[in-house]
Amino acid sequence: MAQLLAIIWKALVIPGFLFMSSYGFLVEFVDRKLYARMQNRIGPPWYQPLADFLKLIGKKTIIPSDADESMFRNMPIISLAAIASAFLYVPVLGMNAVFSFSGDLIIVLYFLAIPTLAMFLAGWYSRGVFATLGATRILTQMFVYEVPLFISLLAPALLAGSWSISGIAAYYAAHPLYALINIPCMFVALVAFQCKMERAPFDSPEAETEIVSGALVEYGGRLLAFFRWGSDCELVLILSLFSAIYLPFMTGILWLDLILYFVKTLLGLFLLTLMRATMARLVINEIVRFCWKYLTPVALLQVVFNLLIRRAL
Amino acid sequence: MINAIIGIGYNHRGLEKACESRNYIQDLYIIERVCGICSHIHSTAFCMSIETLTGVTVSKRAEYIRVVVAELERLHSHLLWLGIAFHEIGFDTMFMYTWRNREKVLNLLATIGGNRVNYGVNTFGGVRRDFDETINAEILSTVDLLEEEIKSYLHLALTESTLAVRLVGVGKLSHEDAIKFGAVGPVARAAGIAEDMRVIEPFGAYKDFPLHVATDQGADVYGKTVVRILEMQESLRMIRLCIKNLPDGPLTVRVPRRVPAGEVLTRVEAPRGENIHYVRSNGTDMPDRVRVRAPSQANWHGMQHMLQGGNLADVPITIAAIDPCYSCTDRAIIIHSENETKLTDWRKLRQYSIDWYKKQGVDCSTLKL
Fold first, then answer.
1. In the CATH hierarchy, which top-level class contains the domain B15-331?
2. Residue A4 belongs to a domain
3. Under-50 pLDDT residues of chain B
4. Which of A199, A214, B82, B260 has the fewest other C-beta atoms within 10 Å?
5. Element (H, E) at A230
6. Nearest Cα residue to B28 out of B122, B110, B116, B109
7. Does residue B6 belong to the interface with chain A, where contact is any CB pair within 8 Å?
8. Are residues A279 and B162, on separate chains, in Cβ contact within 8 Å?
9. Interchain contact, B87 vs A38, CB within 8 Å
10. How many domains, chain A?
11. CB-CB: which of B86, B96, B312 is closest to A41?
């Protein structure tokens, strides 16, 4: 019984859903503040993401008459649920995630695809012109970044000889120098994550000056709030995954590891925000070209390199 | 993008008609409000028209002050454009930076004229504001500061790869097409047409200090960007020359209230291109006809051609590249429906607004125009 309660506590509170959500709002604040400072603006106060969320929750939800109502209503929740489930397999405090089994990296990657697909379906079933266009762009973009993203996560896993995120983290924690080998694919993953989060320069699916806000244009009120919440959590998930796989430096002391976790994730966030602030939006065919021409080959080379090193060890 | 149909006409304000039912002094205030951005160049064109009709010669000092304000206005307009162009291609950081610089120019204009948009510098026969030592120093220090910033934009435009990827080859209007569609201003100059009213029909300081016309051969949005940045550098040079060589003299010359009968066509270079004012006088204190051909009106014609064959993602930046000024462009409303095409002219629009306000409980039909 006590064990069950402990698991529920871990899944729902710390380091589970509640931690992820609150850190998500914090991460959104840091992102917006950094972005603003890089643009020579003041930026929002720390509670702004939460205030935005609460205000959106209180707004009326309008569902377009052409839209498929059940799809329209359920997609935000499915997206959030997938992220919350995936987060349980990513180590936050120390080396061990709440749950782990050999092969959970694959599960997390599957879960990671769900929010994007949910957004696509949300746009598709909104039946608006901009929403449909945004939805197709989401799908096009998904096809091109998934490959380099998967390969760049595969490379460290190959070197570590484990398909579990906790296992990978543990391996690199034991051999911190090996983590340096993965630096090229770390950057590939970072760019692919940016692409996944649809942030500039890969924000073509929600380009506000072209297609208003893409797939989510018909959304408002509580449903939009859920999507926003989901994308904050997705950012936390991605940053945690990033820090677990590419920056697996740990001390073994709980509070020190927690601080390290924040430092590592915020470092990743800083790089993502810097990328967002310093580049213009790419056209969708440029994104396709960039991902296939540069990201995928680098990731593939890393895989070959890691396999050779694995052999030599 | 297979085809595009340009439908403008949502913002008609009836300014020309309004000018014809007011006296010249009142018209000056209306003309200044033709455009929210190039307010000064419109009033300059109108003042120059009236001065030609009455045969008044404006003092050199007044003309120099007009040139300085016009060039500051060009700076503010081009910086605004640059910011919007960056925003359209999703580069919000540069949008913030350019608008921060634009704010400096606006502050300067506010110091000169007391307002950020309608400076009210011009009057018939001269200018209403004088430059003293403090304003001169302020202008020169701002110009120095902007020089550095604009140099960095040029560097960015020439080296930043995501910018080139988004802009090169987009919204092309070739040399021949630019002539065919009658493009003006930076749109024409980006296609290699070295035409500028400041060179063709110079006045004031433009006569004394010849202008280098910036052109580009690209004919695309990238070319338009480069041309506008180079033009800003030219504006800075012009402002500096004007301030350093500001001649002494009276600010205004007396202009009679009644303008002799006649007609005049004045062409000046607005930030967006050639700006034409036609004024016909019948000898009273009210003009018989005022016609404003703002530069955006000339540039709209090539738009359909520029959009054809492009990507959807390039539409906003292609439209923004001519720096369209919607409020300058509209003269009447035409409504196409399946069976009929309805033209709503100034009189009908006015009646519509009177009826609309009557429904709201306000009767303005008794107001004299």
1. mainly alpha
2. no
3. none
4. B260
5. helix A221-246
6. B122
7. no
8. yes
9. no
10. 1
11. B96
Tell me: the pLDDT tens digits for A129-153? 888 888 888 888 888 888 888 888 8
DSSP state of B261: S
A207 vs B90: CB contact, 8 Å cut-off? yes
Q: What is the per-residue pLDDT for A29?
A: 92
CB contact under 8 A, B166 and A281: yes
Q: What are the chain B neighbours of A209 within 8 Å (beta carbons)?
A: 87-90, 316
**Cβ neighbours for B352, distance < 8 A, ≥ 6 positions apart:** B344
Domain range annotation of chain B: 15-331, 332-369
Q: Are the beta carbons of B90 and A285 separated by less than 8 Å?
A: no
Q: Is residue A9 part of a domain?
A: no
pLDDT tens by residue, B294-310 = 888 788 877 777 887 77
Q: pTM for the full model?
A: 0.80
pLDDT digits (tens, 9 = 90+) for A3-36: 777 777 776 777 778 888 888 899 999 999 999 9
Residue B323 to residue B79: CA distance in whole angstroms: 11
Residue position matching structure tokens 């959807």: B312
Shortest CA distance from A209: residue in chain B: B88
Two structure tokens written together for B131: 């430059």
Establish if A154 touches chain B: CB-CB under 8 angstroms: no
Long-range Cβ contacts of B101-107 (<8 Å, 24+ apart) = B101/B146, B101/B149, B101/B150, B102/B75, B102/B76, B104/B142, B104/B145, B104/B146, B105/B72, B105/B75, B105/B76, B105/B79, B105/B142, B105/B146, B106/B76
In the block, residue with structure tokens 């998930």: A237
Our CA-based measurement puts residue A77 at a distance from the nearest CA of chain B, in whole angstroms, of 29
Does residue A236 lie in a domain region?
yes
The size of chain B, in residues, is: 369
Residue A213 is part of which domain span? 17-312
Q: Which residues of B touch A39 (CB under 8 A)?
A: 92-93, 96-97
How many CB atoms lie under 10 A from the CB of residue B4?
A: 16
Closest CA to A68 of A115, A136, A120, A126: A126
Which residue from B minimizes the CA distance to A202? Answer: B90
B177-208 burial, b if ≥16 CB within 10 A, otherwise e? bbeebebbbbbbbbbebebbbbeeebbbbbee
Res A64 pLDDT > 70: yes
